[in-house]
């Protein structure tokens, strides 16, 4: 199984770049809940950075167990050689913008929330942030190869999962604690039975094809 490393970051450091943010989002595909983005910056000059980074296998968040993701986030929070910021775009704004634009917006907001703005962005995916005032590089499957992006993906995934677990307590009939809003059979059956709730994305199938149905045209509260 491929482990992400700091090859991309080291190349930039050799070029004189001093601050590099890994940037990723989670929650693009679900039928419910927000899209969540994280921008994360390691301090490569921190005296304990080498020891810290060697103790963690940096992988895309999807390749870690939920328990391991939570453990890594706890270690990131305790380590003084890293800073990160998280931003969300809510379901109704996703419906207004479309999910791709909403994902870009979440990532932009996350970078803007960093206490110190980075000199360079390493972004998971095919696209850079339009008109953002720093150098950038988009990397397809960057969360599987670039450690800073993998770390950002873990933070975003854990925090989004925790949000979905809170939503489950409000609307337990959908099972958000298990599928986190993705279109599982259980989730689709619950939607068919109960209709949408306030965190469902009505621009997504199955909703957009059934909005004339009384069950789908009115959200439960």
List strands and helices in order, with pairings.
Blueprint: H1 7-14, E1 20-26, E2 35-42, H2 49-54, H3 66-78, E3 82-89, H4 91-97, H5 99-113, E4 120-124, E5 135-139, H6 142-145, H7 147-170, H8 176-179, H9 185-194, H10 214-217
Parallel strand pairs: 1-4, 4-5
Antiparallel strand pairs: 1-2, 2-3
Written overview of the protein:
- It catalyses: Endonucleolytic cleavage to 5'-phosphomonoester.
- Keywords: Cytoplasm, Endonuclease, Hydrolase, Manganese, Metal-binding, Nuclease.
- It is found in: Cytoplasm.
- Its cofactor is Mn(2+); Mg(2+).
- GO terms for molecular function: manganese ion binding; RNA binding; RNA-DNA hybrid ribonuclease activity.
- The protein is an alpha/beta fold.
- It has two domains: about 5-170, Nucleotidyltransferase, domain 5 (2-Layer Sandwich), CATH 3.30.420.10; about 170-215, no CATH class.
- Helix content is about 45%, strand content about 15%.
- It has ten helices and five strands; from the N terminus they run H-E-E-H-H-E-H-H-E-E-H-H-H-H-H.
- It has helices spanning about 5-15, 50-55, 65-80, 90-95, 100-115, 140-145, 145-170, 175-180, 185-195, 215; strands at about 20-25, 35-40, 80-90, 120-125, 135-140.
- It has a five-stranded mixed β-sheet with strand order 3-2-1-4-5.
- The model has no long low-confidence stretch (mean pLDDT about 95).
Write out key terms for the chains shown:
221 residues, alpha/beta, Nucleotidyltransferase, domain 5, 2 domains, five-stranded mixed beta sheet, 43% helix, hydrolase, EC 3.1.26.4, nuclease
């Amino acid at each position: 199984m491929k482990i992400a490393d700091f090859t991309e970051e080291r190349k930039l450091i050799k070029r004189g770049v001093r601050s590099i943010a890994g940037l990723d989002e989670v929650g693009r595909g679900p039928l419910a809940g927000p899209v969540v983005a994280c921008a994360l910056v390691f301090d490569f000059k921190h005296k304990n950075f080498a020891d810290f980074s060697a103790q963690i296998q940096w992988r895309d968040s999807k390749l870690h167990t939920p328990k391991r993701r939570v453990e890594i986030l706890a270690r990131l929070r305790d380590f003084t050689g890293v800073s990160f910021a998280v931003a969300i775009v809510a379901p109704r704004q996703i419906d207004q913008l479309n999910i791709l634009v909403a994902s870009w917006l979440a990532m932009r907001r996350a970078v803007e929330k960093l206490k110190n703005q980075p000199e360079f962005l390493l972004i998971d995916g095919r696209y850079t942030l339009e008109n953002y005032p720093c150098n950038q590089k988009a990397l397809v499957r960057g969360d599987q190869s670039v450690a800073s992006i993998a770390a950002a993906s873990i933070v975003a995934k854990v925090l989004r999962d925790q949000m979905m677990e809170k939503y489950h307590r409000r609307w337990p009939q959908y099972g958000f604690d298990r599928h986190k809003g993705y279109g599982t059979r259980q989730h689709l059956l619950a939607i068919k039975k109960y209709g949408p709730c306030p965190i469902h994305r009505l621009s997504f199938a199955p909703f957009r094809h059934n909005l004339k149905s009384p069950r789908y045209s009115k959200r439960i509260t």
